[in-house]
Amino acid sequence: MRTERTQLQHEVDILSQRLGQETGALKDELKGMFDDRRMAVRNEQRDMESKVQQLNYRITVSLQADAKSEVEGLRMILTRRVILTLGIIVFMVVGSLKLSSDAKYEEEVAKRKAPTASAGSQTEMVPEVQLREGENPAFVSLG
Known about the structure:
about 0% strand, 1 helix, mainly alpha, single chain
């Protein structure tokens, strides 16, 4: 019985040692699997972050392109309005100068005709232009 007991004790020790080795191996394998899964999750997160960054970049580029085209369109509209406004202002200034010049000319003609009408002359007189000293003849308006 002693030998059987010793033999059984020896078998229990061997099985215990084998069980410890198997548990250690399973523990290492399980730890390796957890590490592999952890690395896979990190890689998935990196891939997801990369995709999000690419999407953000595309959205940014698209928005910038849209904004630039809208700014360019607005710039063209404002340029057209400024040119039109300047044209109208120039037209109004030239028109007012012409009206003012015509009014002065008619006033001058009326002044010169008044003395000739009393003299009884029927011919129309061409207004004489008299230059004062130092005046430039290029600036004289003949009507």
